[in-house]
Structure formats: structure tokens, C-alpha cells
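Side project, low priority. Logging it here so it doesn't get lost.
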Amino acid sequence: MNIRRSLLVKMVLSFVSIMLSAVVIISAFTYYGNVEILKKHAFENNDMELSIISEKIDSYLEMLDLVSAFTYESELQELLSRVEEESAITSMRRLRGFQQFYYKRLVSLNFEGEISDIYFIYPDGEVLHQGEGIYDPSYDFTQQEWYEETVRNSERTNIVNTHRQEYNLSGRYHTQGVYNGNYYISAAKRINKLNGMEMMGVLFMDINIKKLEEMLDPLYIGNDSEVWFADENGLCVYSQDREELGMKLPFSIAQYRTDSGEDSGNFTIVVNDVEKLVSYKRSSKTGWYLVSAKPTQVVISDISLLRRNIFLVSAAAFILAVLLAVSFARRFFRPVRALAGAMKDVQEGKLDIRVDVYSEDEIGYLTNTFNHMVIRIKKLIEDNYLIRLREKDAQIEALQLQINPHFLYNTLESMSCIAYVHEVEEISIMSRALADMFRYSIRRSGSLVTVEEELNHIRNYMKIQKVRFGKKVTVDYQVEERILHCRIIPLILQPLVENSIKYGVEVKMVPVDIVIHVAYDEEQIAFIIEDNGSGIREEKRKELLRVMRAGAEMDVLEKHAHIGIVNVNSRLVYQYGEASGLHIESQEGCFTKISFHIPCSKESAPKD
């Protein structure tokens, strides 16, 4: 009883531990899953807002292309054209015409409040200016990096990053070393003459950054949101904090973009121990990134209620799980105890026991399997007993059968002696040869023989055939003496020689000359049995090869005309591998040639 209670307690504790782990894991996954869902929704909303604002800004910047397109009007092209040794009055007229032309065009596009200044920069550094500021003639636009890039890329408008108007005298006012002027982004476009690719100059337009602020206002939701506009180098183009303009962002967008490979995306970062959700969108027009960042706590501020509800549900589920575990353990233990008792009975040798099965679950399956196992054990014990009895009977029968071969061998010896005494030479030769063949064939199975012993067996076989057929059959032995001691499996040559005699002399009644070649060839013994008999038809030869390769069943082999050849091939392949199988060449009415190779071990290899 103490053991049962101990096991019951263990089962209850195990179930409680599992349930507790499951409740904790599910609660954690539920909580953090909801947090991730909120983050995902925040990212999706940010992505949508960023896409709308980015497209709006791109559309606005594309409008700047219309302004630069005015330079290709013949009226402005004529105004911008200079002549050698131009007078001051002519230069002033050209400047005035440029200013009036662009003023009218900006008014027509409703851009007069958005583009603060327009400059046309000639290749020699001369500048035409239209706008609010006062141009500083000492400033050299042609030495700026953006100018060189604009000249090289004549097809597109070059957007210049946030900068101060160093070239504008009205933009240089400072108070106690602090810059008080406005910040600008600019667009630069190379202008060519209408009649070719010759450059006339570069059109340079300043856009007040306040226009960006108007477009980005919808992204500011609450006081904790942060929005930046950054270029590909991570420099801030826009921020409500003017001190951040032109500075590096607190994180690298390029790093996260490299990981995702997308022009838009989102990620989380930790800045000053505060986790933030960051979304970005890259502008196809400027290559800049519109970036929005919100503290995670702002996004998941509503999660506290969900956290409390999850805790209450988890606690209730855990208490219920404990009660169910106790009830289940008690019910589960009853059939287990019955099964354990039955196992103890089987251990004591009671094999007639059976356990009742009350369910189809795993316990029922185990009980049913146990019952079948007991039945099988009992049957195996009975079968094993019968097998032992049969083995004893077989041993007795084998001892009896061993007497018969020796009796037959001794009888053949006696016949040979009687024939010799009565001077019947043929009978003496045949009985002596048959006795030697019989003694050779009844040697212990699995033993190896020498090449010389195998050839002597063939010689005895041929003595008998010579008596039968006389000069109709001859054998020529071409054997290297150095391999006579090499060991091989027995009875592999007789079926091949017998095949030559059977289908030559016996069936076709034609004389047959048989040549047996045995030679040493690269650590192998090569055997070739060749005859000039009736040969084998090609279709018959292919059928024979197919049967040998397929390893046909015994009932098929027994019906096959060349069963001896098939059996020899099977023994060679089994003993030495596929490479030692028989190779058959034949031509009907001319010859048959059967060859094979047997590996020669180092111990039995011939010595040169």
C-alpha cells in the first residue's frame, strides 16, 4: 500500500508539474504574443503613414523638375546666352530678365513661398540669382561637391542635403555664435543648350525646410513620437530638434536595411535604456529615409489589463488541473496495478494468466500486448522444445547417413580389384576412377581443394568418358605448374567439361576436343574451358546469361537445360563476388568458351 501511495503521489506531482509548466508557457506565449501583435499593428500603421508622407514628398520634389524644365524654353535660353565682352548694362539686363522670368513662373505654379531662392551658375562661376536672400558674389558654387556631381549626371535632378545658406549674406547672421538663419534643402539640375549637349550651366533652387515640417506633421501623434528625415549616409535632414540637423541618427538604418534588403521596414532598438519601435521608408526620388520612432511602452500601455486577466485565468486553470490530475491518477493506477501483478505471476512461470482489458487507450493496448506476449512466450518455449527434439533426430539420421557413402566407396574398390583379377581393364579403370571421384565429392562441405586435386578429379571423370566415347572426346591440359598448390572451391570444372561433352558428343554425336587453360594472371587464377563442339545459339546464350544474372529460384533452375553452369556461377559469385562469375562466348556450330577468374590469397600465391 505504501508503494502504491508513493507511486500515486509521484504521478500526481508529475501531472501537476506538467500542468504548471503548460500554464506558465501558455500564459507567457499569450502575453508576449499580444505584445508582438500590438507591435505589429503599430509597425503597420507607421508603414502606411510613412508611405503616404513619402509619396507626398516625392511628388513635391518632382514638381521641382517643372521649374528646371523652364530653362529649356527658348525665351530663357536666349536670356541665359552670353556674348563675348558683354557690357555691364547687358549683364544687368540678363540678370533682370532671369529674375522676372522665374518670378512669373513661380507665381503661376504657386511656388513663390516654397522656393526661396533660384540660382543659375555658369561654368566660369558667374551666378544669376532670384529670391529672398542676398547672394554673396565671393562664394564659388563650382567648387562644391554637389556641383561636380550634378555636372556629371545630366539626366536627373540632384537633391542636396540639409544645409545653411553659406552663399547668402542674409543667412549668416549669428547671435553669440548661434546660427539664427533657416535651414534648406536644395535641388540642382544641369542645363544644356537646346541645339546639343553643350552645358550652359547649373540651375540651383533652395527650398525652405518648413515645407517638410508641414508634410511631416501627421506623423506626430503624442509627445513621445520622434520623426527624422535622413540621407543614405545616416545624416539627419529633418528633426524637430534643430540641433540634430546634419548630425548622425542615434542608430544605423543601413545596417537594418542590409539585413532585410528592403526599401521599407521596421525594427526595435534601445536608446538610453528605452526600447523604441522604429519604422523607415526609403524615397525612390531622393534616396532619403523617412524614419519614425515610438517608445514601446507607449504602444503596449493597454497591456496591463490583459496581463491581469491572463493571471486570473491561469490560476483558475492550474487549480482545476490539480484536481483533475488527482482524479485521473487514481483511475489510471487501477489497471496498471493489475498489469504489474500479472507480470509478477509470469515471472514466476505462470504462463496461463490473462489480464482483462477494460479500455482501448494506451493502458488497454499495453494490457492486450502483454496478453499476446505471454501467449507468444509460451508458444516459443514449446517450439524451442520441439526444435531441440528435431535436432537430436537429425543428428542421429546424419550419423546413419555417414555409413552409406563409405559403404559405396568400399564396394567400388572391391569391384575394381575383381575386374583387375579377371583382367577386365575397362571395368577396373571405370570403377577405380568412379571410386576416386566419389571419395572426392563426399569430402567435408565448405573445405577448399588445390588446383591439382580439382584437375585430378577431371582426369578421373575423363577416364570414364573415354571408356564410353573413345577417341570422340579428347582433353588438352594447359596448366602452369606453379599454381597447382593454390586453393579453390571444389567441383567447379566438372560441370563445365560435362557441358562440352553432353552437347557435343552425346547430343550432336560429333567429336569434341576440349582444352583446359589454367594460368596465374595478376594475383588471380584464370580458368578457360574451350571446346570445338556444336556451340550455343545466340538467343540461348543470352537466356543463359540472364538466368545467371537474375539468380533465379531453384524451381526455375531445375527446369533449365544448363543447370550445372548456373550452379557453378552461383557458387563462384557467392564465394568470390560478382567479378568471378562465368563469362560465356560461343558461336553455333563452331566453339564454346567459358572463362572465370578466382582471387589467389598471398599465402597460396605462386612463388616466382
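Brief comment: The domain at 73-213 is CATH 3.30.450.20 (Beta-Lactamase).
Revisit when time allows.
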